[in-house]
Each structure stands twice: as structure tokens, then as C-alpha cells.
Input
Amino acid sequence: MTAALLEPLGVAIHALDLARVRPMDTVAVLGAGCIGLLLMQVARASGAGRIFVIDPLRHRAAVARSLNADNMGANHEAILDWTNGRGVDITLEATNSPEGPHDAVSVTRIGGKVVLVGIPNEDSFSLPASLVRRKGLTLKFSRRMGSEYQRAIQMVQLGHVQFAPLVTHRFSLDRAPEAFALLDTYGDGVVKLVITAE
Output
């Protein structure tokens, strides 16, 4: 299981490299799937202060809570309440929604940074140009990972990330169609599943 999760951890590490978190920066993570939950953990290990996690699925918010997110919610607008209208320093967007980038921009403070990690279902999204420009945001796109395997291994060895809470289901190879159907519907509280050849 650990080896299989090094790649998504590398994705999170690469995204945080782009974000350049400074000590005690406030960070929002939109989307608490496997990638989002790893982004949250790597942000904490990178020195982030308060970390807010948004996901409409309660079981994902519960996992974020178990991993010590400071606040969890179903709607991105809660972040503005939690920050008294200021917004966060950095938003890490990890949703599959075409609205995700727009939501990320709306909760990021003036002069803040947004890193888009998610892949929208429709393969397109729109941003309010006036808001992005008025806030003077830095917008970065993260694509997979570079050569982060060594750092990913070190993070696991040093206990900076936890994989166990993310893996909610295990399937044998002959049940792969059932596993993918479960992922497609977000059923049975699934976050990340592992398919084994045994």
C-alpha cells in the first residue's frame, strides 16, 4: 500500500513546491479526496499555520478532521467566515469540479496564491478575470509530479504523512470493476481504495 501512495504524495509535494508556503501561512484545501488530504498533510509539514479543508462529502471531512485540519466545511464560503473576510494566503484546489478554480480564487486573500491541482470533469473551467486581477493573485497550475519520490519516501519514513486513514477500501483484482464503480459513485464512504493481485 505504501509504495502505491508515493505517487499521489509526490503530486502533493510538487504542488507545495509551487505554492512556496511560508511559516504560519493560512492554507485552504478545496477537495478532500486522496490528493487533497495529502496536500493538507504536506502543507502542515511545510510550515502552514491554520489549514481549512472543504469537501461536500461528510466522510471525507471526517478524515480531514482525524488528520488535524483546523476547520472543515461543505462550502468554500465558510473560509471567508473563518478568516473574518480576509481569505487565506494560499489555496490548493484539488476538486474535479469546473467550479473549483472559481471557488479557489474567491477565498484567497489579496496578493495570495492559488495552485490548481484538480482535474475538472468537463476539462474546462472559467475564472472571473476582474476578481483575479483586482486581487493580484498568483495562479499556478500543477501537473502530476516531477522527481519527488525521494522526498516522498523521506516524508513517510519520518512520519510526516499518514496513509492509513486515506485507504478506506481494499479489493482483489477480480473485483476491480466493482472497485471502480464504487469510486465513480463515491459510495460507502470511499476515499482511496487499493486493488491487490492477491
Observations:
- Strands lie at 27-30, 51-54, 71-73, 88-93, 108-116, 138-141, 167-172, 192-196.
